[in-house]
# Entry
Amino acid sequence: SVSFAEEVKPRPIKDARQQEVKPLRQEMRTEIKDDRMEFREERKMEVKDTRGQIQENRAEFKAKVEDLKGNGVKGDIKIEARKMMEENKNIRQLSREEIEKKRSELKTEVKTRIAEFKEGKKVILDEAKKEKVKQTIEKVFARLSGAIERLKAFDARISAAISARKAKGLDTSKAESAIEEARNALETAKVAVEETKSASTESVDDSQGVSNEALRSAIEEAHGALKIAKEKYIEVIKNLPIPKRPEGTSSSTPEIVK
# Structure
């Protein structure tokens, strides 16, 4: 897709400037779409984690029940059942809070992108001069840098999840292989984003606006590299194992033994 920088060329004709707004609007929509996709994938991961923890609790509870039955202590079975149900309730509540937090962050991010679009549109329609155009470019770079930081934070989180599952004896080889590919893609994206900063320092002529080929190319390459990196991290999530449900256990909450 055409980037914002490719078409920002302030002109005295309003219709021409309106055409320049189109790529900026398209960029905003693309970024919002990517943010929503990222939220959906993180939500899936959170639900996956929650189910895995609950299944583990149920498996532990079943093992305790078998031990207590052997000792003939029914009262303790009821206590363990209530404890297990309370723990599962807390796990679900924490999961809901985490998802709601991510949803709130997404809403804020969408509002920010819309505000940036409106601001960028105003700059164009007001026949922004060189300094204003440069400021807009700096914001583009800031968004790209922000995307890098979010991916770095996500890398730390998914890496911890892989380590936790590996410690439990699960096969994490596919996830480990996938995260290495994701990290390579992230490094490529970092380089591409830094190149946009270098390209943006080149002179921008007032009458021509952002027409520098190197800058256009750098921004497009950075967007492409970030997209690939996000896709690679989604593959990591897909390859992340979860604890298997022990044979004979039910997916529903066990009944309290009377």
User: Anything to note?
Assistant: Confidence is low (pLDDT under 50) at residues 1-13, 205-210, 250-258. The chain has six helices and no strands.
